[in-house]
Amino acid sequence: MSVFWGNSMTLALALALVPFITGLLAFILRQARIRRALLLLTALAHLGLTIAAWIVRPVPSAGGWLAIDDVGIVFLTVTSLLFCAAAFYAVRYLKHEESLVKNRLDEGFLFRNGPEAVFTGCLLLFLASMTLVIVSRHFGVLWVAIEATTLVSAPLIYFHRYPNSLEATWKYLLICSVGIALALLGNLFLAVSATNASSTLFLTELIRQAETLNGPWLKAAFVLLFVGYGTKMGLAPFHTWLPDAHSEAPSVVSALLSGALLNCAFLGILRVYQVCLGAGLGDFCRELFILFGLLSMLLSAVFILGQTDYKRMLAYSSVEHMGILAFGVGLGGGAVFGAMLHMINHSLTKAGLFFVAGNILAVYRTKTISGVQGILKVLRVSGVLWLAGFLALTGTPPFGVFLSKFIILKTALEQGRYLLAALFLGVLAVIFIGLAKIFIPMAQGDPPENLGDGPRKESSFAVLPSLIFLAIVLLLGIYIAPPLSDALAQAASMLGGI
Amino acid sequence: MNAWLEPIMVAIVLMNLILVASGRLSACIRIVAFQGIAVGLLFMVADVYPPTTDRLLFIFASMILKGFVFPWLLFQAIREANVRREVEPFVSYPVSVAICIMTLVISIWLGGRLPMPRPVLSPLVVPVALSTIFCGFFVIVSRPKALTQVLGYLVIENGIYIFGTALLLEQSVLVELAILLDIFVAVFVMGIMIFHISREFDHIDTQRLSELKD
Fold first, then answer.
1. Which end of chain B has fewer CB atoms within 10 angstroms, the N or the C?
2. How far apart are CA A207 and CA B23, in angstroms?
3. pLDDT of residue B172 exceeding 80
4. Does B189 sit within 8 Å of A173, measured CB to CB?
5. ipTM value of the model?
6. CB contact under 8 A, B171 and A244
7. Do A357 and A347 contact (CB within 8 A), yes or no?
8. Which residues does A302 contact at the CB level (< 8 Å), separation at least 6?
9. How far is A188 from chain B (nearest CA, A)?
10. CB-closest option in A154, A163, A243 to B189
11. CA-based Rg of chain B, rounded to a whole angstrom?
12. CA distance A275 to A283
């Protein structure tokens, strides 16, 4: 057995193939119950394989197409955990949607849903493509996988068929596809930069011969890939698709987009950063990371302050946190560890909050902030989770987000970059105020009269995923298990940190 | 074989100019289809050595997709819809052509300045590739219809492919096929979306898709 699983490629291939096959199956299965069971089973199998990867820790072989390295396993774990929770949430969500009338009125729009088989199938294919992004060791394959994530998630965003979601889907498809086309050009530049060697695009090969790469071409390749995958990651000013897609997609899809997909795009940038580090272009790349990271944070703060839609608010908060990740990697040193930890914290918190937002939307039937009041009285558990999520998201101790933001800030101070540290802290403070003004009135106060009185019953499928995620984030703020901190440190050391 | 190289590239540049000067959606779809075939032909004559079977397979697949399948899909997308069949650009046609010629000049200047670390097929290739990419971007930003945006995306892809040919990059055919498959699915999904947009709104004018904003 260990020989079989010890081969890094086999395990990686299995991780991507399992959801791919079941995803195709879901398209043709007629019975909704079997499809939903398949969704759950696949999510569990994927999580099981991820755990296997932790136990075996296969060594990436040189020149392989697929492998799970130290950076990959961190991203893989987040994606797998998130998908598992999303699958449980989705099963209940789909059951609930099925019970509703076919043409219903939300926010003044009559709409119906897309076919459920397509939704489930695309959800599974989405997992397969994200896994492929994480395990690929070849820039061509990486590109194919990232573009595939866009294509299979477009039908997910357009599940509720009404004009706004159509508009969001179109923007998402076009902006991301054009962005990713630039990344394709970046790949070609990368191949050109390998002058002395054959024009390889294998990650291991490129890192090995990084010193012989042609500097200007490699720089140009990095810029193109940064802009291309940065579009997908939601870095300002290329983020314009993100708030639309996140607010119009069903909440379970928003959770996956925000918590898993943005990370995968970030990984795309980190892969070429690894090559640049080897080639001695680290300083050049770090400046770009800091610049766009801070810009994303600033811009999201502006849009959070005047926000009227709570799902858009969560989306802008994702832009902010992607900015924090880029900022952390850009600082280098200890901040890279902080950024990796922050990635986990943000994904879990944001997914948890999107799940709760879905519960709120299902009861209040509106996404406007002013239309939602008194969640604590109507949905007791969701209300508490909404407030806890707010505290976690803004980095209140003892939640894990506090720790990861603190590590990043501390590094900035240690490096003597006081201006950057002040900017970072200032923006975080503004965002804290902006979010507090949104979250707290939503939770407190009296609910609108048409909701009746007394708390409603909440399904455990609807609240447990968020509850577990927020508990993990809380735990991460207090104690990080040694295997995880080792893996994070390993990942950070591969990305120019210590 | 290289005798064919330059006529094909000139044809590709001319197609860029005709594309921005055309007022009918159907004409635009056809021009982009011809350009796709021309890029395929460029691949064929670009191979210094006789192309391998894998290589030929890839070239034919790309020509069939870009020359026949994509236009068919896009025609299907606008057939059912009751959309107006004019391009209705923000920028008038003469100005569009002028801008395209300007980007060509810039591309030639840029192409001359790029230090090439490896021998290139022909000094023309890089400028042609760059100007095609610029032209694709221009079509996306200057034309309001969803369909023309897809065409712009395809023109960008054509430009990138020409660039790859120019540098004689030997990539694995498997990866190339996967990239082609992705582009195919992209056009397919975008075609379906155009169909939905036209059915939902009775137009495919993305300028009027402006409900969502802050």
1. N
2. 49
3. no
4. yes
5. 0.92
6. no
7. no
8. none
9. 6
10. A154
11. 18
12. 13
pLDDT digit string (tens) for A430-455? 999 999 999 999 999 888 888 776 78
Tokens read off for B55:
């290589």
Domain assignment of residue B103, yes or no: yes
Backbone angles phi and psi of A459, in degrees to 5 = -70, 140
Inter-axis angle of helices B70-79 and B146-166, nearest 10:
170
Strands, E assignment, A80-152: 104-106, 109-113
Number of Cβ pairs < 8 A linking chain A and chain B = 113
Q: Residue ranges per domain, chain A?
A: 282-498
Please give the pLDDT value at position B114: 78
Q: Is residue B213 part of a domain?
A: no
CA dihedral A441→A446→A449→A454, nearest 10 degrees, is 120
For residue B148, being part of any structural domain is answered with yes
Angle ∠(A389,A431,A164) on CA atoms, nearest 5: 75
What was the pLDDT predicted at A4?
Answer: 47
For the record, the structure tokens of B115 come out as 């230090």
DSSP A3-66: HHHHSHHHHHHHHHHHHHHHHHHHHH---HHHHHHHHHHHHHHHHHHHHHHHHH-PPPPTT-SB
For residues B100-126, give the mean pLDDT: 84
Contacts B187 to A, Cβ<8 Å: none
- The radius of gyration of chain A from alpha carbons, rounded to an integer in Å, stands at 22
Distance of alpha carbon B39 from alpha carbon A169, whole angstroms: 30
List the domain range (segments joined by +) for residue B78: 2-208
- Specify whether the CB–CB gap between A388 and A470 falls below 8 A: yes
Q: In the structure encoding, which two tokens stand for residue A205, read together?
A: 């090969």
Could you list the beta-strand ranges (E) of A75-204: 104-106, 109-113, 160-161
Closest residue of chain B to A162, computed from CA coordinates: B200
Task: Choose from A112, A126, A177, A302 for mutation: most chain B CBs within 10 A.
Answer: A177
Q: Which residues of A touch B176 (CB under 8 A)?
A: 140
Longest dimension (CA), chain A: 74
Predicted confidence at residue A2, as pLDDT, reads 41
Q: Supply φ then ψ for residue B116, to 5 degrees.
A: -90, 120
B50 part of contact set with chain A, CB < 8 Å: no
Tell me if A308 sits within 8 A of A434, measured CB to CB: no
User: Does B119 touch chain A if contact means CB atoms closer than 8 Å?
Assistant: no
Give the phi and the psi of residue B40 in degrees, each rounded to 5.
-60, -45
CA A270 and chain centroid, separation: 15
Under 8 Å between Cβ of A435 and A318: no
Report residues of chain A scoring pLDDT below 70. Answer: 1-8, 60-63, 101-111, 195-199, 453
pLDDT score at B195: 84
Residue with tokens 């690929």, as numbered in its chain:
A136
Q: Report the C-alpha gap between A451 and B30 in whole angstroms.
A: 56
Per-residue model confidence (pLDDT) at position A233: 95
Q: Could you report the per-residue pLDDT of B44-80, keeping only the tens digit for each?
A: 887 655 667 877 888 889 999 999 999 999 998 887 6
Is residue B42 over pLDDT 60? yes
pLDDT at position B125, please?
Answer: 85
Phi, psi of A136 (to 5 degrees): -75, 145
Residue B168, judged by CB atoms within 10 A of its CB (0-12, 13-18, 19+), counts as middle
Q: Which of A171, A173, A310 is the mutation pick for testing B, counting most B CBs within 10 A?
A: A173
- Classify A1 as helix, strand or coil: coil
